């Protein structure tokens, strides 16, 4: 038989068994909300509990959590032990897993975040546009300034300095795409630059999935006065906008802090918020609590009410000991714990209560370190301690409420100053021993400081040393504060709180005020670290290596703001104080690298390497500097060292491959790219660079396979679209190039290199107006974009804008005065305009600087061929081919000289060599056909004509040349009808009338 509803007596007994709770109205309001469906206008999605310390906010939140769980809700509780949004989500995910709901994707991303964050702090980006696009050094500096302006911590990494400025100079949006060059993929980039932007939609999605299995999900955010600065804007966005996705309507949020909600942010949403202000207990509630503990004597009750003012924590603390006489009730505002110890007859428990106030937080290990008792008693005593009303026993770590802990600390410090010092020093030594164990195997400062367990143990060790001897320990604490800020501003906040709390505990106003000032400074996510360094450097207690490192960190912040000269001055000050700090030399070298002063950068990296030999990130950065300076052999030597230290360093392998590619070591480069991708198959930079290698070795199918794979991994990457579009352009697939480069421009409208590439593709298709428009936009975005200026000069030549041609070429040379290829382009412009002496003068200037420049030699030979100075032409063309045996243009020009001087067989041999080299060989094939026709070798001519590519060419002149040759070939071989048919078609097209007339005369 089914059991009926419980009786009144059973309900009363159940409530008495749970003890007095209080806050009945607040609990009833929260409980009633579960009876209202989310669609009901009376339903509330947000409850905010607020009031002064000691009013019982945390206690009420716990009760609300219990009520939620009784309703089958999935719950999570977060307090000030977290310092950032990723930590908040990690805490929530752990608690969800404990209730049987694994948020697997969120856990995966959180793990990736912790790993990638430090990679990104060490990362410097590398250029990702094709080198042939010719980015200017000035633009590169602007781009790098934009990168560091994001607040990243540049320094180490194998791929420094490689993003094309055309895509980056305008700011952070473009840097997001480029950052994937150093990290694994775009998701990792977003994790680093905006973790909440990646993690929050996943959290929201998994909450939606969980909502199908649980009736409610309730999220509790306690101590909101501390977490609100970073939680409040995030929570507002999650709950009131679609920025991160659709939050299930069955989610309820509870926040609890000392202050009311920010009306500026939440004032417009009062219809879904319930405000729960808490004050002291009413007299009825206070009496109820006392009665529940057996305190019913009216004189005692009145004394408790008078002294506590109804403050729940103090009422509970006094009620716990059941005082029987008013004399037993002291002033709890100053000596609540002292009075509690007076009532506790067990001297062991009294000693435990005092000793356990010293640590900021306790687990069983810290408890045993703080309490001098037998191990067999520790578990029982720790359990007793966790049950006290002023001890927050949530989780494995517990803490005292500040209202009780503070007077307890004050009591011990004043009652026994020596005992205070000895006990804190003993705790400091315990934490120091644990820290040494945690750091076993971690040698370098950058390693241990990025190891969170080690860092947290040092934090507590420093706290106890400061409490014991504030003046003596301050110097080391300030040095550690610098190290903490160097790692991360969130880590720095923890150290700032440590200084403030140690100052409060030790009664040291100087230490307390410094901690407060640093906390306020580090609340600023953008400039907080710089402000903190200013405060620390104003303290004489910071001296020696710590002071040097503070100058180094301030230098880094200046560098992040693009103030490179000021940064170098700070690095110089740091080195004056401590010339042996490798990290300072490394930062100085990186700043020189940003300024393009590679010799100075290398000198600094050399010094860092001397101080910290076999340090991978120093070696890799020096290797990258060599690569940026074009010293590829030296770069490879350093990358070899980096890879030897860590064979799984995919970044070093990829950069070494890029160097080998630049040295035409194609097989070795391919092997390195393959190894790098076997370690990290989703790295976009490596995929694209391998595609470039395959492109240069005419493995076009494989090149496009890599680019297609990159596009699938990151379909919205403008950089990948630009790379793929440029590959289409270089493959002669101009229509596809226009489409793909257009997609890149849609994704990033101010993408100068994509605009330039599309402009060139339009030019190749004969779309001169579109080409000019694209190149105009590219040059407007990057006025010193040399490659775009040269390409625009070619478009202007087609448009018969002679002055514009030379204006663009001169601008390009002014922007890149050492670019021989631009000077050669200027010389060829003179050639095309029959200004042969000017052309020869330009080519000779190039050869004075670089005697073996094959391009200049070949063009100089062509200029003499134009002048019919055949002997001089052959001399220069022979030298060109000696310098570069695969120089196709020189074979073509020499063949023409041979033909002009009657050496037909040698001309044919050069054209055959030109055809064998591949590429665009149609013109050479028709030259062979023409030569064979005029030599009377008509059958051979017809056979070779059949081999020629029949596909139409965008070059009108080449079309006419081909059709003219076909008419000639048909005529010479007696194929009159075919000759007539083609000639008539030419006349219909109003082309080559002379050819038509010739064909008709013969017929």
Major sheet strand order: 2-3-4-1-5
The span between the termini is 117 Å
Total number of β-strand segments? 7
Rounded mean pLDDT is 82
Give the helix proportion (percent range).
55-70%
CATH superfamily of the largest domain: Tetratricopeptide repeat domain
The CATH architecture of the largest domain comes to: Alpha Horseshoe
* Secondary structure category: mainly alpha
Number of helices: 54
Weakly predicted, low-confidence segments: 15-20, 122-181, 331-335, 951-960, 991-1003
Strand-residue proportion:
under 5%
The outline comes out as elongated
Can you summarize this structure?
The protein has about 1000 residues and is mainly alpha-helical. It is about 70% helix and about 5% strand.
Describe the structure.
- The chain is mostly helical and 1003 residues long.
- It folds into 6 domains: 175 residues, Rossmann fold (3-Layer(aba) Sandwich), CATH 3.40.50.300; 197 residues, Tetratricopeptide repeat domain (Serine Threonine Protein Phosphatase 5, Tetratricopeptide repeat); 100 residues, Serine Threonine Protein Phosphatase 5, Tetratricopeptide repeat; 97 residues, Serine Threonine Protein Phosphatase 5, Tetratricopeptide repeat; 101 residues, Tetratricopeptide repeat domain (Serine Threonine Protein Phosphatase 5, Tetratricopeptide repeat); 84 residues.
- It is 68% helix and 3% strand.
- It contains 54 helices and 7 strands.
- The strands form 2 sheets. The protein has a 5-stranded parallel β-sheet with strand order 2-3-4-1-5, with helices on both faces. A two-stranded antiparallel ribbon has the order 6-7.
- β6 and β7 form a beta hairpin.
């Amino acid at each position: 038989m089914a059991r009926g509803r419980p009786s009144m007596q059973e309900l009363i007994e159940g409530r008495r068994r749970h003890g007095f709770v209080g806050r009945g109205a607040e609990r009833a309001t929260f409980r009633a909300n579960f009876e209202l469906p989310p669609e009901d206008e009376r339903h509330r999605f947000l409850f905010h509990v607020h009031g002064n310390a000691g009013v019982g906010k945390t206690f009420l939140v716990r009760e609300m959590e219990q009520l939620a769980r009784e309703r089958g809700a999935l719950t999570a509780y977060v307090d000030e032990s977290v310092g950032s949004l990723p930590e908040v989500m990690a805490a929530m995910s752990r608690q969800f897993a404990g209730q049987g709901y694994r948020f697997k994707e969120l856990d995966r991303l959180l793990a990736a975040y912790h790993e990638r964050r430090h990679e990104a702090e060490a990362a410097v980006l590398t250029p990702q546009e094709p080198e042939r696009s010719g980015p200017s050094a000035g633009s590169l500096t602007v781009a790098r300034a934009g990168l560091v302006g994001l607040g990243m911590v540049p320094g180490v990494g194998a791929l420094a300095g490689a993003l094309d400025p055309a895509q980056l100079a305008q700011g952070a949006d473009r840097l997001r795409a480029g950052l994937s060059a150093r990290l694994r993929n775009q998701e990792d980039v977003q994790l680093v630059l905006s973790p909440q932007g990646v993690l929050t939609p996943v959290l929201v999605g998994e909450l939606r999935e969980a909502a199908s299995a649980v009736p409610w999900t309730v999220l509790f955010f306690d101590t909101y006065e501390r977490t609100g600065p970073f939680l409040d804007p995030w929570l507002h966005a999650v709950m009131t906008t679609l920025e991160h996705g659709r939050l299930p309507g069955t989610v309820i949020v509870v926040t609890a802090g000392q202050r009311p909600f920010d009306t500026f942010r939440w004032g417009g949403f009062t219809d879904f918020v319930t405000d729960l202000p808490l004050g002291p207990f009413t007299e009825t509630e206070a009496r109820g609590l006392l009665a529940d503990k057996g305190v019913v004597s009216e004189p005692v009750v009145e004394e408790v009410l008078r002294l506590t003012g109804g403050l729940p924590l103090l009422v509970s603390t006094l009620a716990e000991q059941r005082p029987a006489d008013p004399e037993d009730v002291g002033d709890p505002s100053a000596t609540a714990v002292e009075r509690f110890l007076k009532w506790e007859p067990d001297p062991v428990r009294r000693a435990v209560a005092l000793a356990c106030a010293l640590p900021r937080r306790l687990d069983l290990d810290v408890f045993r370190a703080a309490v001098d008792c037998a191990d067999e008693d520790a578990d029982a005593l720790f359990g007793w301690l966790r049950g006290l009303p002023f001890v927050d026993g949530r989780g494995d770590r517990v803490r005292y409420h500040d209202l009780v802990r503070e007077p307890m600390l004050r009591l011990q410090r004043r009652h026994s100053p020596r005992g205070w010092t000895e006990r804190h020093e003993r705790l400091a030594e315990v934490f120091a021993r644990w820290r040494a164990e945690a750091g076993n195997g971690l040698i370098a400062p950058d390693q241990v400081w990025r190891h969170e367990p080690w860092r947290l143990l040092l934090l507590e060790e420093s706290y106890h040393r400061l409490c014991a001897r504030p003046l003596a320990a301050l110097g080391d604490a300030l040095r550690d504060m610098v190290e903490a800020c160097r790692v991360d501003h969130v880590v720095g906040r923890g150290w700032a709180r440590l200084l403030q709390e140690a100052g409060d505990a030790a009664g040291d106003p100087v230490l307390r005020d410094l901690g407060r000032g640093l906390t306020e400074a580090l609340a600023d996510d953008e400039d907080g670290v710089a402000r903190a360094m200013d405060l620390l450097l104003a303290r004489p207690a910071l001296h020696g290596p710590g002071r040097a490192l503070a100058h180094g960190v301030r230098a880094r912040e200046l560098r992040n703001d693009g103030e490179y000269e000021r940064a170098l001055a700070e690095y110089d000050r740091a080195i004056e104080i401590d010339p042996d700090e490798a990290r300072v030399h490394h930062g100085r070298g990186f700043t020189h690298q940003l300024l393009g002063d590679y010799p100075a950068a290398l000198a600094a990296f050399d010094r860092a390497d001397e101080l910290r030999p076999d340090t991978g990130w120093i070696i890799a950065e020096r290797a990258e500097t060599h690569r940026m300076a074009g010293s590829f052999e030296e770069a490879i030597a350093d990358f070899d060292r980096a890879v030897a230290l860590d064979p799984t360093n995919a970044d070093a392998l990829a950069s070494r491959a890029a160097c080998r590619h630049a040295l035409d070591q194609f097989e070795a480069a391919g092997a390195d790219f393959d190894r790098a991708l076997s370690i990290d198959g989703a790295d976009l930079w490596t995929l694209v660079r391998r595609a470039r290698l395959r492109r240069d070795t005419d493995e076009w199918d494989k090149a496009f396979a890599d680019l297609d794979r990159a596009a699938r991994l990151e379909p919205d990457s403008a950089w990948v679209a630009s790379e793929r579009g440029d590959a289409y352009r270089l493959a002669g697939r101009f229509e596809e190039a226009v489409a793909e480069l257009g997609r890149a421009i849609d994704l990033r409208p101010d993408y100068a290199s994509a605009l330039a590439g599309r402009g060139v593709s339009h030019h190749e298709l004969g779309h001169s107006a579109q080409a000019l428009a694209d190149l105009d936009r590219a040059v407007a975005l990057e006025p010193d974009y040399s490659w775009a200026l040269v390409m625009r000069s070619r478009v202007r030549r087609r448009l018969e804008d002679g002055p514009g041609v030379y204006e663009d070429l001169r601008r390009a040379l002014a922007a890149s005065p050492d670019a021989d290829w631009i000077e050669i382009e200027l010389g060829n412009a003179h050639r095309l305009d029959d200004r042969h002496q000017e052309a020869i003068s330009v080519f000779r200037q190039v050869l004075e600087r670089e005697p073996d420049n094959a391009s200049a030699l070949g063009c100089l030979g062509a200029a003499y061929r134009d002048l019919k100075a055949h002997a001089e032409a052959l001399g220069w063309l022979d030298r060109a081919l000696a310098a570069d045996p695969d120089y196709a243009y020189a074979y073509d020009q020499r063949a023409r000289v041979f033909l002009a001087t009657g050496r037909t067989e040698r001309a044919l041999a050069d054209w055959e060599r030109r055809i064998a080299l591949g590429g665009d060989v149609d013109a050479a094939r028709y030259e062979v056909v023409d030569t064979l026709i005029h030599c009377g070798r008509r059958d051979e001519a017809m056979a070779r004509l059949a081999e020629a590519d029949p596909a139409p060419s965008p070059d009108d002149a080449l079309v006419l040349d081909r059709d003219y040759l076909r008419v000639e070939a048909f005529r010479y071989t007696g194929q009159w009808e075919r000759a007539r048919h083609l000639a008539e078609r030419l006349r219909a097209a109003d082309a080559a009338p002379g050819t038509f007339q010739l064909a008709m005369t013969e017929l």
